[in-house]
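Troubleshooting log. The previous structure file for this entry was overwritten by mistake, so regenerating from the original sequence record. Sequence copied from the archived sheet and checked twice against the printout by T.R.
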Amino acid sequence: MCFDRKSKTSEVIQSHTIDTGAVGVEAQTEQSIAAPLQTVQNETVTKTKKADVSAATTDASVSVHSKAVERTAALRKTEETVERDMPPVYVLGQSIIDINSYRDDIIVASDEMEDVKNKIMMLQSFLSNPMPPFAIVPEDEAKYKDELESVKLAMAMMYNKLLTSMDSWLRMSYRLPKSTITTVRITMVRNLKSEITEEASLFAENMTEYRRSMIGSPEAIKGESKTWAEMLTYQRSVKIDLDELGQQPELLGGATSEVMKIHYNDKDLYFKQEDETYVGTLLDMIRDIAREFPGLDEADVEGFRSAMDRELHAPVEELGLIDEGSRYEAFYNLYYKKDFYYNIDTKNGTPLEKFVASIPAARQKTFEAYFKQVYKTFNQQGIAEQSAGIAQGKNLSRRNVATSRMASLMGIGDMFAESRTAVIKVNGKTLRGNLMEDAGGKDITYVERHLQARYSATAEDQLLILPVFDLLCGQIDRHLGNYMYLTGETENDTTEITGIKCIDNDMSFGCISLDKAKKPGNQLKELTRGSLHALPPKFKKALMSMDGAFLRLMLMDLLDEDELDSLVNRLEKIQEALTEAEQFYKQNEAKLSRKRRREKEDPELIKLEYLASFRNGTAEKSLEFSTSFSSYILPGLKTINSRIKARKKEVPKELKKKAAERKMQEQEENKQLKEEKGKK
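Regenerated output below.
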């Protein structure tokens, strides 16, 4: 039977949900879990202070509590004066930095939002506690029955209190005047509430399933400890029983990189078991990976290891051509050589090159496959640790899931190939890993063959969003080869790039700051006023409405605490940069004529003028769009300028139309008010 989490009902658990009004039941429950919860509450006090993030504030130094009441009173007294004195662009309400942003600050800093964050941190703290040991035989589960029942009750209570606090915030926010950011945040909280409601309803059932699946597992046999957060990973996974579906997966890839192609919900999906960065040195790696290649000659392995050891540790003068700065060069060059065993200077070559050249022809094919797997593993470890800030032994596949989930939360899920954690039952075995959709589309070689391809407005927006989103995620390995191009045909039968679909997101969410992310060698680029200002308004609002507590709640099953801390820090820095950029442009635009000011506020014109400045070389030099635009991807300057000219003609018409619509709406509202008064 297929047991996909999404196919189950989302009703609240009847046997474990705690009614906040039922004092007797709650008191009894709290007494049964008093000890673990006291620890949770003590940890929460410290963690909450650390995790408090003001997502829409324009002044990072403002205290969360101390000025909320003062600002509320001040707004009521000064709102009319402020709106009268502000430039028309603010009155039009087209900027995310407008008078209503102060109301957002009050909402973010409210007691209700503080309570939501506290409940999130309490949940996180509880889930960081260790689980009882996994029983090797099912009968041993009886020893942990009382503890497991207490956890069920504790989680039901904490889920219920979190949902209640979200309801309180929503009720409070509905009563306040809505700004653009507030509206986005309300939607975000409602979506989070929906996810948590379903999660709460399934926790007890999934906990039982998880422990059953772990009995007798390799982790249990090794005596590895797990936290309740690991159970949450299982809880949020897609669960598919291929045995009961009578389906055998199609195996793709080689022996060391096996991918299963399965058919589920009328889709072809790809499952790969969880992978982690290698723990150990290159010399350890050479021996360990040899075990994955049956039939590999032991002398070849030891010869490879000895040659590599000399390259790494021998004195420079002994190695001849190799100096300290290029000890891995032979390793790198051999991996990329098409003629692996030829054109090697056996007289003056490096120890590694000489050894490879000496391998008998009968063993060359096997050794080459083995050698390249060692290089891939070594390269992956180096990029993850040194560039992305992902420590040895950390899970990589979950970072694809984190990227997909975060993109969906921010309203750009269609830019990324959907990826979810999954538990697959096949041939009597339970496998955990990553389930991915087929990205589709065309690769960069297709784009290179269609240099005259047109880019839709959607594709241009996505290519502007991508570098900023990757910077937020700490994705250091985005390049032209790891996103696909969705295509269509225009009216004159020319190719049009309609959008992009990103893949290979596993080098992300490490412990990396913005400054470290932009170091040479990484693909992440500088945040500039121009690139931030050119972002689509919808994505700006999503960035400013995002909160660190929300991110922790949604990603706590995928990332470690230090990785979540780094993510929240990057979010805060980007929010500060975006706020500063918007204020800078508004100050400059206040000096312009009313007509030009309105043009400068139009999102489409902002984007086109930015593309034009990049195309003619006047864009900020610190921004290099190597991951998005290049000389053949960008439309020609003549085309961009013609689009700018056409758009300038449309802006006044659209403003006039919107003004007429607002006037009609006001007239309709006044009419309804008169009718209601007449009835009274």
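Residues 1-104, 621-627 have pLDDT under 50 and may be disordered. Archived copy saved in two places this time.
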